[in-house]
Amino acid sequence: MSYWLMKSEPDVFSIDDLAARPHQIEPWNGVRNYQVRNMFRDQMKQGDLALFYHSSCAEPGLYGLMKIITDAYPDPTQFDPDSEYYDAASRPEEPRWLLVEVQFVQKFAQPVLLSTLREHADELAGLRVLEKGTRLSVTPVTPAHWKTIGRLAGVAL
DNA sequence: GCCAACGTTGGC
DNA sequence: GCCAACGTTGGC
User: Which of A48, A74, A115, A145 is the most interior residue, by most CB within 10 Å?
Assistant: First the structure.
């Protein structure tokens, strides 16, 4: 099993939105980045766990935990002309973009803010989200970093 | 709203 | 295949 960090802008889709979904499940659609597409396809597997990161907001950071409940499959929004994620160049015979479905696990009682992560930069050295210029919306998390973040969140991960 | 950093596009 | 121009991300 692998660990991940997945970003979302809370104004668009927050961890509370995920918790409020039927069965607390959501297709993680709209990813239009090849590196992330390849991670979905080659590395992320059903049963993996992911931290839910709120970005582009007043207090960016980790707000909770979710589980990857499917392997990657084609993102239907790429074929929907009414979707903001529509990609006219992608053809159903050869889908360009993938998604995974995620399910809510828990919201942290206290979020682990980006500023807190930075305060623990020594322990978290190499965590992608702390590295300058990392804009990927999905990044891997090592088991050691995962454990540290669990401690900072006050939960056993 | 600024701006650094990065990804993508497209002309050549 | 190079690289300039442009668009996007995301913290501040």
Answer: A145
At residue A153, the pLDDT reads 96
Residue with tokens 């935990």: A65
Residue at minimum CA to C1' distance from nucleotide B4: A133
A9 touches strand C (CB under 7 A): yes
Q: Separation of CA A94 and C1' C1 in angstroms?
A: 26
pTM above 0.90, yes or no: yes
Which of A45-49, A72-76, A88-92 is predicted with the least confidence, judged by mean pLDDT?
A88-92
Dihedral angle of Cα A9, A64, A119, A56, to the nearest 10 degrees: 0
The Cα–Cα gap between A10 and A83 comes to: 19
C-alpha distances out from residue A103 to A44, A48, A80, A86, Å? 14, 11, 24, 24
